[in-house]
Amino acid sequence: MGTRRGLSRDAIRSAAERLFTERGYAGTSVRDIAAAAAVDPALVIRHFSGKEPLFLATMHLDVGLEAVLDGAIDSLGPRLIAYLLDADERTRGVFLALLRASDTDDVGVRLREVHDAGFVEPLRRRLTGPDRELRASLAGALVGGLLYGLWVVGDERLLATDHADLARHYGRVLQDLITPA
């Protein structure tokens, strides 16, 4: 029984993650998730208490910045932008799902937690100076702006630009926050 319960829970999580990243929070219903997991909708509620708790349980964004942040600080801006531009479809899907559902009760809180814990705080630890908290937050906002331009707005000029050129130009701006003159 415990194994069967675990299998249905795993199937629900897997289906929810896929559907939330493909369709977003608003475009995914508990019935859709249940159908994709081949379970009764009541089982989704029993395991996760509802759509929002299931969304929060499945939408995790770990961009793995540690490897990039460990490199030389004087070239971190362009390296960081290049790394983020190469994000996989899952990362992009989770980012967009969180962003689009950010006005839903606890989802906005989760998005802020992901932003702070996954980007701002690791970067802040690498920075020096009395204003490092502010510069880390500004860097997070700057990077978020690029991802917004690419993934939300779909800015055609940005999308058509070679990733190396974007990393060089945008990375230079980011570098000014990381190592100010």
From TrEMBL:
It comes from the Bacteria. The chain crosses the membrane at residues 134-153. Residues 6-66 form the HTH tetR-type domain. Residues 29-48 bind DNA. The keyword Transmembrane applies. Keywords: DNA-binding, Membrane, Transcription, Transcription regulation, Transmembrane, Transmembrane helix. This is TetR family transcriptional regulator. The lineage of its organism: Bacteria, Bacillati, Actinomycetota, Actinomycetes, Micrococcales.
